[in-house]
Amino acid sequence: MSKIGIALLGCGTVGGGTAKILTQDIESICKRSGLDLELSYVVDVNFSHAESIGIPSNLFETDYQKVLKDPLVKIVVELVGGTTIAKSFVEQALKSGKHVVTANKALLAIYGKELFALARANDVTIGFEASCAGGIPIIKALTEGLIANRIDALFGIVNGTCNFILSEMTQKGQSYEEALKEAQELGLAEADPTLDVSGMDSAHKIAIMGALSFAGSVELDQIPVEGIDNLDLLDLKVGTELGYIMKLIAVAQRMENGISFRVRPAFIGKNHPLAWIKGPFNAVSVYGSSVGHTLYYGRGAGASPTASAVASDIVSVASGVSDIVFNQYNFWPDLTDKAVQLPNSEIKSRYYLRFNIADKVGAVAQITTILGNNGISISSALQKELTETSKQEYAVPLVMTTHLAKEEDVTKAIALINASDVTLANTICISIVDEHPETIS
Ligand code: HSE
Known about the structure:
About 40% of the residues lie in helices and about 25% in strands. It is an alpha/beta fold. The N and C termini lie far apart (about 50 Å). The model has no long low-confidence stretch (mean pLDDT about 95). The protein binds L-homoserine (HSE).
């Protein structure tokens, strides 16, 4: 059996974790897979992290062109991140006839279609298990395990940073800023957490998983995305009183006229299958036509969990499993039509609404009239007397939850309420996500 050389691009957190697995555990991986794998190069411009974790210095290489010319190297593992240099590195590898393994969700969510086509044109494959939900083998589940199913919906908690922050806010009553600071101190959030807290990282992941699940290419910029950075602790507290937990949920859901993709903070009931996912953990709920509900849970970030997924891709690519799946199956974004992506106005949900109204006669009547005129039915209402302290911060908060309503109607009603003379600050609207119905009895 011929030796399969691996070149690792980027030796940061995940790169370091992968280099460790490919040096320390290579014997057992080869024994288990029956492959002769070898880490041939670690390519970077700075090797201080690689040195600090004991990666042998004879593997260090700064000249990527030399690596591309080495016929022993069959697989290039891109762990540089971002969409500029990483894209060029991946394109060069594919054009040089090397298979690519990557954890880069942004790259695939934006350029996946063209990169898959480029791989196909050069008779190589791209492995990307590590791009979604870290160590959870969700890509294999969607592309192989659930192949017999029409996928009806995916609901994911796919950003550990956000889930940690929301868990801390809910459990410890911390403000968003306090919880973010704690996440950064624990190394669970980047120094610049924008991609995570804005919801974009989750959007990248649901775009990738959704394209495979629904066999259609996905336009990332058509996914409505809301992050957690504008949340008010008050709503998490009131939500808890009402029996709900706040989560950043990435959704891809089959509807009558197309697929609804969205990323947003939402309330879920305490008994919802995703309610117990706490701290930095990830989970993806997938509903298939034959299998019903399946749930995938694990660590969605970090050096060794993500490296576990990278190593799994290396084995799949080296053994030819990836090659078969990539060339035989027809659900890849470069082979399918565009998915019909529905705007949020089309979805129906229950909603949590917090009105900030003047404490005067007829204010509540005015609100309920506007809701009623727009066909929105109220399922609960809560108004508390304010303490002196909270009075300084808020107008009277009136919280209502609705029965199932069309988002378009809710948006229209909120605009009218916000423009009315009883509203002192804009209305907060958070959707309540119920468990997806099981089709299997
Ligand atoms: N930063 C991500 C998270 C992991 O916090 O889950 C990589 O996408």
